[in-house]
Amino acid sequence: MIEFHNVTAFQQQTRVLEGFSLKIETGEKVAILGPNGAGKSTLLKLITRELYPLDREGSHLKLFGRQNVNLWDLRSRLGLVSQDLQDDYTPYTSALEVITSGFFGAIGAHGHLQPSADQLVQARAMLAEVEMAGYEDTMFQRLSTGQRRRLLLARALVHRPAALILDEPANGLDMGASLGMLRLLRRFCGPEHAMLITTHHLDEIIPEIERVVLLAKGRIVADGPKAEVLTSERLSDLYQIDLRVSEQDGWYRCWHL
Fold first, then answer.
1. What is the largest CA-CA distance in the chain?
2. What CATH code is carried by the domain that includes residue 22?
3. What is the CA radius of gyration of the chain?
4. Is 79 helix (H, G, I), strand (E, B) or coil?
5. Picking from 109-118, 204-213, 243-252, which range would have the lowest pLDDT averaged per residue?
């Protein structure tokens, strides 16, 4: 589904990735874990085509098997939830309009992009799915951070994408909102969806995620099954601090000694 091969990418004047290779198969559930500045957000922006890699011989980034992807087609196959997207949203967009904008890959409501009757039905059903029935006409700016994040999840899922891309999905949420968001992610984590989460918090890695990639300074330092990667030794090396890791019912947590 996603294949990086020997990719180099810059953010402004800073080289974030160099010679980077990673493959994610259709339907896989993967977490990319790493400290701030590791390159996690750059990785996602390359996938969503907000950034493009350096054009070099022997290097490619393929999405759904193709290097050249139609952006409209890509938006229908990927669902995105990120803090950047949340920050960009027009404050006077209603909750229902946030969800219907997902059909068009738009940010906010636009007069020339009118949802069909069937799309409105789907959007209202998704509003209920994320436990926000009754908020249809509420403006985005009047919602809590947790409610805004749930709306973005509904927007991402309304067109039934092949992959759900989440950049630190519980970032900035209080404990209740964070747990609620993770519960919704588990509900929508079926076999028909691939899921890619970037985070630096172990508690955002839901039990359904099977594979973890550790990223540091733009390079992969570990990649494999969750139980093999999320160890005290590996995470201590990653964060340069003495950590201990424990697991219970598929959830992982760590603490500093």
1. 57
2. 3.40.50.300
3. 18
4. strand
5. 109-118
Nearest CA-CA partner of 40 in 55, 29, 51: 51
E-strand ranges in the chain read 2-11, 14-24, 29-33, 60-63, 78-81, 163-167, 194-199, 211-216, 219-225, 243-248, 251-256
Q: At what angle do helices 117-129 and 145-157 cross, to 10 degrees?
A: 130
Tokens 């996938």 locate to: 47
Tens digits of per-residue pLDDT, 81-127? 998 888 888 888 999 999 998 888 778 666 667 888 999 999 999 99
Q: Which residue type does 140 have? A: F
Q: What angle do CA 231, 234, 237 make, to 5 degrees?
A: 145
124 found inside a domain: no
pTM (two decimals): 0.92
Cα separation of 159 and 95, whole Å? 16
Instruction: Count the Cβ atoms, other than its own, within 10 Å of residue 142.
Output: 13
100: its two tokens: 């219907």
Number of structural domains in the chain: 1
b (16+ CB within 10 A) / e for 56-70? eeebebebeeeeebe
Q: Is 135 left (phi over 0), alpha (psi -120 to 50) or beta?
A: alpha
98 with 155: CB under 8 angstroms? yes
The total number of residues written for the chain in this structure: 257
First-to-last C-alpha distance (Å) of the chain? 40
Range of the domain at 53: 1-64+191-257
